[in-house]
Amino acid sequence: MLATVAVLLAAATAQVSGHYTFPKVNNAADWSYVRRADNWQSNGFVENISGDQIRCFQRSHAGAPNVLSVAAGSSINYGANQGLFHPGPMAFYMARAPDGVDIKNWKGEGAVWFKVYHEQPGFGQQLTWSSNGKSSFPVTIPRCLKAGNYLLRAEHLALHSAGQPGGAQFYVSCAQLAVTGGGNTEPSGQYLVSFPGAYRANDPGIQININWPIPTSYKNPGPAVFSC
Fold it and tell me: Which helix (H) or strand (E) holds 137?
């Protein structure tokens, strides 16, 4: 009986250790600038891309206590609580809160999100991902963005089980930023998407067997990357 319990505990520990969360930016304290995600204890993932959790991994809105000031054109580091050991792409999105709205209270609803980065794999005998094993990810704030308060959404899409419908795993969180300097650009049109709404379960970059046959191309889900 004790041996069975030990085996079950070991299996549970292994499962949790293989998962992760994104709790910090610039090595600040966990959840000080990042909204505390629902997986802050479990290290779990979002499965339902049609629910509100796909936005910032929160069933109920709760702002972070602080807002990070960052200059347009500069880079910040978004941190995971351990190395990423599932294959798949990192992506970053941003959304600008309306002028006069407290970013801590803003939910980021509607078609307000634009992508500022997504990762492409290397191709060969298997897909390789530059994010694999890493726990810190630099992201550059576009230099032309209009100053204001923004949400920065980190997303890792784990594809190891994505050959089956609903098998993709999304690890997500949102940081609160005050972007200074910059220009007058506000992305619009085809660059803007909503969460939920940006993805479909059968998008080719979400439902994909990366193990066999080995893909020779990969189409990231969501819109094109915005650049100045």
Answer: strand 136-140
Chain center to CA of 32: 17
Residue of 114, 152, 122 lying closest to 228 (CA atoms): 114
Q: What is the pLDDT of residues 76-96, one digit of tens each?
A: 999 999 999 999 999 999 999
User: Average pLDDT, stretch 172-191?
Assistant: 97
Instruction: Decide: residue 24, CB within 10 A, 0-12 exposed, 13-18 middle, 19+ buried.
Output: buried
Smallest CA-to-CA distance from 195 within 93, 68, 117, 123 is with 93
Q: How confident is residue 6, by pLDDT bands cut at 50, 70 and 90?
A: very low
- Residue 68 carries which side chain, given as an amino acid letter? L
* Helical H segments across the chain, by residue range: 2-17, 53-56
The distance of Cα 89 from the centroid of its chain, to the nearest Å, equals 9
For 19-65, what is each residue's pLDDT tens digit? 999 999 999 999 999 999 999 999 999 989 999 999 999 999 999 99
Q: What is the pLDDT of residue 18?
A: 67
* Number of neighbouring beta carbons within 10 Å of residue 80: 22
Report, in this order, helix, strand and coil percent for the chain, each rounded to 5: 10, 25, 65
Residues whose CB falls within 8 Å of the CB of residue 127, separated by 6 or more in sequence, listed in order: 87, 121, 210, 214, 215, 218
Report which DSSP code applies to 26. Answer: T
